[in-house]
Amino acid sequence: MFEHYNEAVNWIHSRLKFGVKPGLKRMEWLLAELNHPERNIPIIHVAGTNGKGSTISYMQHMLTEAGYKVGSFTSPYIETFNERISVNGIPISDQEMLELVNEVKPYVEKIEQTELGGPTEFEIITTMMFVYFGKYNKPDFLLLETGLGGRLDSTNIVLPLLSIITNIGYDHMNILGSTIAEIAAEKAGIIKHGVPIFTAIENESALQVITETALLHAAELFTLGEEINVIDKQLYNLGEKFSIQTPFYTVKNLIITMKGQHQINNAALAFSAIDYLVQMNKVRITEEQIRKGLEKTTWKGRFELVNSNPEVIIDGAHNPEGVESLIETLSRHYPKRNIHFLYSALKDKEYAEMIDHLSSIATSMHFTSFDFPRAATGFELYSACKLNEKTYSESWQSKLDELLTAYQDQKEDIVVATGSLYFISHIREYCREINKRYR
Q1: What's the CA gap between 278 and 285, in Å, rounded?
Q2: Is residue 66 within 8 Å of residue 291, measured between CB atoms?
Q3: Which residue of 93, 129, 192, 311 has the fewest CB atoms within a 10 Å radius of its CB?
């Protein structure tokens, strides 16, 4: 038994040595031993390459605006480890985290003595989350994000009210497959018999896989661009304005403060899912609550302004599709600005391709590293860049300080820190500390 929160979290992190072990047998064993807490929760299951967190945040804000208690399970965290398990957007307490670890730990030790072997960090956190929501703090809805893929993901032992696949692109190819169709097949693994599926997939071969899987499982399919349509899109102050048509309802002139076409798509997907639950008499919500919920929605690390002089935006664009969305959003909202990228990434990412894309709109590129076992060095990233205007430093703090000084009071210049979500969480915390100091 652990007495302190830090001990408990360090024990969870120590499970990283077990790596990623796709498969559901350990989860099935653990949850059976714990009397299946996951069966007591109304769940919306969300998979996809990008946009999972934002889509969950849109749903959470709409549902809480309507008075529901909404649990969420997301990853990775940006500020605190506890935010992975949240209620109405508020992370569980350190004491609750400690108690969950102490409850689950004996079962982890027990399964280690079986042929199934030791569970991974993600399996343990997922088990803790199911215990919390199924046994101690049952929500009206649990918004459940997959960790990796779908078919063999630790979360994929539930029968949800409905499932969502945001979009599909190239990421985690060493595990999920080298083609879009292979990756789509893994994501499609969350589709259950008779459970409706909502998707914003644009790639035709990926959509074909989802369509065939839905048909196989007699799951009603709602696709953005077919059953769900976004119309009248326009820039609006510091965000986006648009209308949505679903098979059941049309809502006009919605406003979101999160920027980009991809955020419009995420909001449309979230609204369509909630609208379906309204039709099924699972949710009671007014149009005003929908509007307020969407407009209030934010998501840490997604095109987030963290400093104003100079303007510093952080964005967790850690795969090619994320980078394309970032470029589109910058071009849409900051068309005449000088853009200076501060970039860091993990070694196992296709970073050369992403650096090329970013360089296409960059005034300058700056590279760095951070304290993480799989982080690429600043020099490795710098060497992959073809742009002439480029620098690097292995210290992200000194490089960021340099950029903050260089572009202070420069109204035409904007600094965009991007790449690994682990990296941008450091930038976010640092800028928040600076802003507190000078407030």
Answers
A1: 7
A2: no
A3: 93
In this structure, the strands spanning 197-199 and 250-256 are unpaired
Q: In whole angstroms, what is the distance from residue 303 CA to residue 331 CA? A: 13
pLDDT tens-place string over residues 320-363: 999 999 999 999 999 999 999 999 999 988 899 999 999 999 99
Residues making up the chain, counted from first to last: 439
- What is the average pLDDT value for the chain, to the nearest integer? 94
Q: Are 217 and 193 in contact (CB under 8 A)?
A: yes
Summarised one tens digit per residue, pLDDT across range 144-186 is 999 988 999 999 999 999 999 999 877 655 667 678 899 999 9
Q: What is the pLDDT of residues 230-255, one digit of tens each?
A: 999 999 988 999 999 999 999 999 99
- Encoding tokens for residue 256? 């979101």
Q: How many Å apart are CA 19 and CA 203, to the nearest integer?
A: 30
Could you tell me the sign of the dihedral formed by the alpha carbons of 357, 363, 369, 370, in that order? negative
Neighbours of 412 (CB within 10 A): 11
As a whole number, mean pLDDT of residues 355-378 equals: 96
Q: Which structure tokens are listed for 67?
A: 């008075």
**Is 234:243 a contact under the CB 8 Å cutoff?**
no
pLDDT at 11 over 80: yes
Q: What angle do CA 11, 14, 20 make, to 5 degrees?
A: 125
List, for residues 29-86, the tens digit of each pLDDT value: 999 999 999 998 999 999 998 899 999 999 999 999 999 999 999 998 888 999 999 9
